[in-house]
């Protein structure tokens, strides 16, 4: 997901009957990344992420919101290596044949949890690039709880980072809201985790701060390398 340009439409659905769709553009240049995501369902929203800087455009409110975020849990980039225990300590990988997604041949692998503390996953990865093109979150009985998949995709699309970066400039006349995410610690916030879940480690902890200086909610993120 970090090494290839791509453009596509992906759809997220759940067994509760909810569904959302978005158009995504991704361009990369070495270590630099830029994404643009435009919602196709619900309230109109456009989100542009350049490395850790995120601009959200809300046309109905004529508001642009600028903030910094970590990239935890971004589909289709799944694994967080180097920060958590080995995936194989908590999941068993089982090949599950081949399939086609959005016109691309894909290998299918099922990740089965070794304990009842986490969900299972079925992952489709495009054969040539390894890009994840579809993923299902599985319940204890193997039932599909949630699914995210590209319905249409162009890999190695001729995208220019400079062109996408132009979307980081809010339209003239819109209100710009800046939200700072201040890195903090659990101890400084008065929190303690008394019973850690095996395999889940803290990967980030932030407190949001509005432009007025007022403290907002705290977010403490844990991950086992897949779930977060």
Explain what this protein looks like in three dimensions:
This protein has 2 helices and 14 strands; from the N terminus they run E-E-E-E-E-E-E-E-E-E-E-H-E-H-E-E. The protein has 228 residues and is mostly beta strands. It has a 14-stranded mixed β-sheet with strand order 7-8-9-10-11-1-2-3-4-5-6-12-13-14. The longest helix has 5 residues, at 161-165. The two termini are 18 Å apart.
Task: Give a concise summary.
The chain has 228 residues and is mainly beta. 4% of the residues lie in helices and 52% in strands. The protein has helices at residues 161-165, 186-189, and strands at 6-14, 19-29, 32-39, 46-50, 53-58, 63-68, 91-101, 104-113, 120-126, 132-138, 144-155, 175-183, 201-209, 215-223.
What's the structural blueprint in terms of helices and strands?
Layout lengths: L5 E9 L4 E11 L2 E8 L6 E5 L2 E6 L4 E6 L22 E11 L2 E10 L6 E7 L5 E7 L5 E12 L5 H5 L9 E9 L2 H4 L11 E9 L5 E9 L5
Parallel strand pairs: 6-12
Antiparallel strand pairs: 1-2, 1-11, 2-3, 3-4, 4-5, 5-6, 7-8, 8-9, 9-10, 10-11, 12-13, 13-14
């Amino acid at each position: 997901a970090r090494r290839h340009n791509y453009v596509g439409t992906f759809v997220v659905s759940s067994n509760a009957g909810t569904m959302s769709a978005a158009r995504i553009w991704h361009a990369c240049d070495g270590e630099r990344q830029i994404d643009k995501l435009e919602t196709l369902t619900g309230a109109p929203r456009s989100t542009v992420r350049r490395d850790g800087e995120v601009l959200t455009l809300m046309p109905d409110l004529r508001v642009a919101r600028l903030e910094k975020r970590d990239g935890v849990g971004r589909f289709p980039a799944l694994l967080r290596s180097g920060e958590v225990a080995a995936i194989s300590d908590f999941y068993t990988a089982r090949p599950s044949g081949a399939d086609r997604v959005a016109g691309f041949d894909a290998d299918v692998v099922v990740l089965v949890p070794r304990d009842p503390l986490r969900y299972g996953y079925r992952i489709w990865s495009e054969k040539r690039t390894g890009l994840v093109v579809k993923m299902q979150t599985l319940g204890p009985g193997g039932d599909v709880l949630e699914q995210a998949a590209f319905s249409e995709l162009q890999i190695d699309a001729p995208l220019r980072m400079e062109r996408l970066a132009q979307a980081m400039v809010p339209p003239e006349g819109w209100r710009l809201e800046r939200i700072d995410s201040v890195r903090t610690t659990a101890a400084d916030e008065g929190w303690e985790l008394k019973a850690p879940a095996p395999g889940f480690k803290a990967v980030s902890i932030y407190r949001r701060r509005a432009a007025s200086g007022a403290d907002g909610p705290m977010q403490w993120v844990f991950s086992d390398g897949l779930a977060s």
